[in-house]
Recover the amino acids of this structure.
């Protein structure tokens, strides 16, 4: 989902509540024609939604995929849900790409993040 | 996270709101001693929490891990958060296993699921 393997991997930061979260958990079918193009297009498109805060994704090979989208409020999420291109992709998902999925839309009440302190590098190592 | 590779993979079902969800997104360090034992123990332990509904997990190799736990209400989640063994594991996570993580605790307002209809098998195929 990133395309820049040299960039350090990190989760979307924890924002000050309240904000909205959409948890989309999927099992894919064998039929994945056009999936990756559509997925990449959706990833671009969602960034244009006013109030979109960020998205995390994890995919177990041959297993579950989980995508978590963060939005400023329910209105921002509604804009994304009802976007015409996104609606077409949703139909493609049911028609072809997903064996099963769940979507949970929720209002965040509490959040926090942890980031390990950087290890100092020896000047001679660089 | 399953140990039964023959079982069909499927997300935790969508429950009737309201219920609580905890989204835990992690990047792991190189130091993973005792991680898998602790992880397996936590997976067993959370099942004993009254009001625990289920858990989904996805792990991109070398990338993000996302674990989503579903609970009947905020009280059930508080019981899990304050469980003594879980607290010890949280300390281990900060000391050793995680480079970074975020936790988002939220109240689900809306959910739905999709499951593809089963394909009929030919009687001669079985």
């Amino acid at each position: 989902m990133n395309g820049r393997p040299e960039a350090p991997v990190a989760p979307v930061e924890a924002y000050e509540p309240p904000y909205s979260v959409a948890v989309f958990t999927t099992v894919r079918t064998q039929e994945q024609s056009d999936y990756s193009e559509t997925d990449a297009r959706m990833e671009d498109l969602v960034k244009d939604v006013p109030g979109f805060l960020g998205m995390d994704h994890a995919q177990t090979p041959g297993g579950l995929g989980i995508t978590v989208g963060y939005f400023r409020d329910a209105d921002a999420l509604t804009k994304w849900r009802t976007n015409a291109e996104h609606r077409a992709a949703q139909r493609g998902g049911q028609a072809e790409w997903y064996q099963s999925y769940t979507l949970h839309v929720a209002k965040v009440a509490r959040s926090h993040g942890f980031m390990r302190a950087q290890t100092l590098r020896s000047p001679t190592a660089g």
Observations:
- Confidence is low (pLDDT under 50) at residues 1-5 of chain B.
- Residues 20 and 107 of chain B are 5 Å apart (CA to CA).
